[in-house]
Specification:
The protein is of the alpha/beta class. It folds into 2 domains: 182 residues, Vaccinia Virus protein VP39 (Rossmann fold); 60 residues, rRNA adenine dimethylase, C-terminal domain (Helicase, Ruva Protein, domain 3, Orthogonal Bundle), CATH 1.10.8. The N and C termini lie far apart (59 Å).
Length: 256
């Protein structure tokens, strides 16, 4: 029996109903190429393979590799499953065909994984991730307030909160509930005509001090008179806070 390692943020999914919901959210069908991060004991991998997908599974835990090799020996022999022992954050993924990213990821690297794949040259068509419930709510701005994270994600795709996953769906059970998050319509199209680097420079400056108004934060990178003129010209209230700014207005500030 292999036990979850706290150091790797492992919480093995055991609820087969949730597995089906994850795969359904990704609209997985025969012939799809799926990148799976941290297959663990293979419960999600098994469902992906049943749907006829070709799976590339990246596993960092050396102890799990023999278990997975034995469990999916026939699928590996048929080249339906490729199992790679590697840290996903160090893995250079250069697919020749479109792919979907579907995974139950460790909470502590959620932001890093989202950033790595949304900003990559070869972006996935869709991302279906099992993440902390609070993080999923923040990304979709469920409370109506945007964040640095939510705007960053929305610049590349459309996030959707699929469903809540109770802590008891895992072993060991985490201290908080999780959620299935779908990021769809992924592309670099938003950045056509503007500098990606400049956009994020302005975005980070705008959210630098949460309690400050946007105007006060952006004075760090804009001349005050110019900033006033630009905000007025775009119909952006001078007293607005970063959390109330729409994605398109961030782009307008970047265009100048």
């Amino acid at each position: 029996m292999i036990f979850a390692k706290k150091s790797l943020g492992q919480n093995f999914l055991t609820n087969t109903g949730i597995v089906s919901s994850i795969v359904d959210a990704g609209l997985v069908s025969s012939g799809d190429t799926i990148l799976e991060i941290g297959p663990g004991r293979g419960i999600l991998t098994e469902e992906l393979l049943k749907r006829g997908a070709r799976v590339i599974a990246i596993e960092k835990d050396a102890e799990l590799i023999p278990l997975l090799q034995e469990k999916f020996r026939d699928r590996m022999e048929k080249s339906q499953l490729s199992l790679i022992y590697e840290d996903i954050l160090n893995f250079n993924f250069s697919p020749k065909e479109p792919y979907k990213l579907i995974a139950n990821i460790p909470y502590y690297i959620t932001g890093l994984i989202i950033r790595k794949f949304l900003t990559s040259e070869k972006q996935p068509e869709k991302m279906v991730l099992l993440v902390q419930k609070e993080v999923a709510e923040r990304i979709i701005a469920q409370n109506g307030k945007e964040s640095l994270l939510s705007i960053s994600v929305k610049a590349y795709g459309t996030p959707t909160y699929i469903k809540t996953v109770k802590a008891g769906s895992f072993t060991p059970a985490p201290k908080v509930d999780s959620a299935i998050l779908l990021i769809d319509s992924i592309s670099h199209d938003f950045f056509k005509g503007i500098s990606e680097e400049r956009f994020f420079k302005i975005l980070h400056a705008g959210f630098a001090h949460k309690r400050k108004q946007l105007f006060g934060n952006l004075k760090a990178i804009f001349k005050e008179t110019e900033l006033k003129e630009r905000m007025k010209g775009f119909g952006i209230p001078e007293n607005i806070r970063a959390e109330d700014m729409l994605l398109e207005n961030w782009k307008k500030l970047c265009e100048v």
